[in-house]
Amino acid sequence: MNDKTYDLVLFGATSFVGKIMCQYMLANYPPGGEVSWALAGRSFTKLNDLKSSLLQNQADMDIDLILADASDEQSLLAMCNKAKVVITTVGPYDLYGEPLIKACVETGTDYCDLTGEVQWMHKMIEKYEEQAKASGARITHTCGFDSIPSDLGVFFLQQHSIKEYGKSCDKVKMRVKAAKGGISGGTVSSIINLVKQATGDPELRKVVTNPYAVCPKGHVFSARQHNQTGPEFDQEYGRWTAPFIMAGINTRVVHRSNALLNNQYGTEFLYDEAMLTGGRVSATLISVAIGGFMLGAAIPPTRWVLENLVVPKPGEGPSEKQQNEGFFDLRFVGTNSENDQQNVVVKVTGDKDPGYGSTAKMLTETAICLAALSKDDEKGGGFWTPATILGHTLIERLESKAGLTFSVLE
């Protein structure tokens, strides 16, 4: 369908991150302007209250509302038939996300989300990829802090390496140099749900521990990938490092990008992520904290304590002040085993809290880029990554609109 009413429809507009996206879209793409959009959710009362709060000082504007429920297939189909791109913030996606994927695939509607749930991505790709290719639906997961900075950071590094040296780097390491932001209730809920499921499901554990879990069938990758689980000293940085809790999804997305780019990074490409710390003690403490959280999430009594007394609930997140004061600074080092001179260092930064403030901008701008991509483009239907469906176009938009920077360091 080409006669769509809206460029974008935001499903889950009344969620915590959805409200931030609404404020961002109103400020940067007001109704009646260059981008047409509508808000969707299951409660008209909540949607209307949100609309009133957004437009309290904008009497000359209006925002269209669409009623749709993740459990109502007909309402999802009706919503998809009105949108070039549907953005969804309704998670955990493993619990609530499949009906919308199905509706988008059936209607040929493009799609973006914030998922960091590798097990769900694996399942959706297995189940719907062929149908998406046939209908023209371009499904793009992980369009927030998971995993745009990692996916596009590696892509940016590799394109520079190819231009400078005539070939890609066969090893890239990402290190979180610095970051500041509040804890995302939705992200925590997704992690707890994954640990809960994997505890009693050996087949699921095989999926989530497989670095190539979301690569296309028939991929040729077999290199043993490093998975950091404790404190380690990084010789290249001269710093102690701790595990990065998002590495489990980011690394999988980067490897899928490599596969979709016809192994442009190499068939033996190595990629890992970690956090730079102040020293061995802090690296150890962070490692213990992450390990303790994962163990606690696996045991029913401690899982209940975590969910009800410790971590923020879905829909909860940092204050506006915390969002504005947040930031992230990621460093990527690319090397080639056959050429000691081939060393590329890239810096990727964001100017807001990673999980919400920056994520809201990344997701919105990705969807706008996708809406502008012609249905006649050679990148047709299927399950894409941000780097493979939009590449340099998205990098340029994120730099000009969303407060991100991508730079090569000497």
Task: Describe the model.
This protein has 410 residues and is of the alpha/beta class. The protein has two domains: 6-144 and 357-399, Rossmann fold; 148-353. Helices cover 46% and strands 20% of the residues. The protein is built from 16 helices and 14 strands. The strands form two sheets. The protein has a seven-stranded parallel β-sheet, with helices on both faces. Strands 8-9-10-7-11-12-14 form a seven-stranded mixed β-sheet. Strand 11 and strand 12 (339-350) form a beta hairpin. Helix 1 packs across helix 14 and helix 3 (73-80) crosses helix 5. The termini are far apart.
What is the topological layout?
Layout: E1 6-11, H1 16-28, E2 37-41, H2 44-54, E3 64-67, H3 73-80, E4 83-88, H4 93-96, H5 98-107, E5 110-113, H6 118-135, E6 138-140, H7 148-165, E7 171-180, H8 185-199, H9 202-208, E8 232-234, E9 239-243, H10 247-260, E10 270-276, H11 280-298, H12 300-310, H13 320-325, E11 327-336, E12 339-350, H14 354-372, E13 382-384, H15 386-389, H16 391-401, E14 405-409
Parallel strand pairs: 1-2, 1-4, 2-3, 4-5, 5-6, 6-13, 7-10
Antiparallel strand pairs: 7-11, 8-9, 9-10, 11-12, 12-14
Helix pairs in contact: 1-14, 3-5, 5-6, 7-10, 11-12, 14-16
How many strand elements? 14
Radius of gyration from the alpha-carbon trace, in angstroms: 21 Å
Mean pLDDT: 93
Going across the major beta sheet, what is the strand order?
Answer: 3-2-1-4-5-6-13
The stretches of 5 or more residues where confidence is low (pLDDT under 50) are none
Query: Helicity level, as a percent range?
Result: 40-55%
SSE-based structural type: alpha/beta
Percentage of residues in DSSP E strands:
15-25%
- Count of helical stretches: 16
